[in-house]
Design a protein that fits this description.
3-stranded antiparallel beta sheet; mainly alpha; two-stranded antiparallel sheet; globular; 9 strands; 355 residues; single chain
Length: 355
Amino acid sequence: MFTFASGVSAGLVCLVWLAVLVSLFGLNELTRRFKWIGFAAFVVLPTVLTVLWLTVLSDTAYMDWFHLVKVYSSTAGCIGFWCIRYVRGKNKKTGEEWKLSDKKWALCFPPLILAVNIAEAVVRDFQVGMKYSDGVVECLNNQIQFYIGGSWNYMNAIAGILNVITITGWFGICIKKKTQKDGSHDMLWPDMLWFWIIAYDLWNFAYTYNCLPGHSWYAGLALLLAPTICAFTLGKGAWLQHRAQTLALWCMFAQTFPAFLDEGRFAVDSTSASQLKALASQQGIELTNGTISTIADGASVNTTALFIFSLIALIFNIGVFGYMVYKVIKTKRNPYTSELYTDLAKYQEIKALAE
C-alpha cells in the first residue's frame, strides 16, 4: 500500500507521520482558540508566503493549478469562517448589535466553499481517469507524480459528487458559546454529523491515493485524521472549521517545503507510484521539469488498492445519500434550507453547545 524510502526504517517514518498528525492537531488548537493567532495564520502568513512563492521559491514551490487553487481556496475558507465567528457591530440607527453569523447570506459561504473544494478534486479525478489510461510519470510545475487512470477515478469522482449533494442544513450553522475551558467561538454545524464526515474522509483519502499518490501518506491519512479527531473530541461540531484550518496550514507547508513530500528521507509513495517510478528508471526516463512520459508496461502496475479504496468510498457515500433521501421523505424537509437530522442525539448534543 505504501513504500518507504530505502535505508529508512518504517518505524522512523511512522514517528514522522505521527509528528505531522500531532503538529496539525496542535496548530489547529492554537488557531481556533486564539482569535489573533488565527488572523496571523490565515491572513498575514499566506500574504508573506505568496511573495516568497512568486520570487525566491518560484523554482521549487508547486505551481500547478490544483495546488495553487487548493492553498488559496482553503485559506479563503479560513478567513471567511474567522469573519463568521468574530465579525459583529452595532446598527447606527437602532443601536442593536448584529453578528455576521446571524446573516443568512453569510451562512451560504461555508457550504459553498466546501463544495468548491470537493469539486476541484472531482475534476482532477475525472482528468486523471481520462488522461492517464496507461502508467505515466509526470514532471511539471515543480512536481513529480506518477499516475495510472482507470475505473477507480470515475467511481471516486461520483463519490465526491454525492458528498456535495449530501451537505445539508446550510442555515443551521451557529457559534459555540464561551465556557471556562473553551473560548474558541467555534463555527458549529450541527447537521454535519459523523456519517457525512466519514464519507468525506473515505472519499478524500481515495482521491489522494488516486491523484496524489506520492502525498497520500501525509496529505491523505494524517491530514484527514487531525480535524476528524478534533471534531470527535475537543472541538465537537466544528469539523469544517478544523478541516479548513489544517488543510490551509498543510498546503502552505507543502508549497514552501515540497522536498519533504517528494525527495526527502521521509517521502512515502503509494504502491502504484513506487512501481511506476521503478519502471521509469528502468526505461531511462530523465525526471526533469517539463517531462511527461508514458510507461509502456504501465498496465502491469497493481491497481487493486486503487480500485478497493474508491469502491469503499463510493459505497459509503451512496449509503449516506440514501439515508438523506430517506430523511427527506420522512420529514418532508428541504435538506439545504432546513436542518435534516434534528431528531438525532448527536445533532442535539452539538446544538446544545451553541450560543
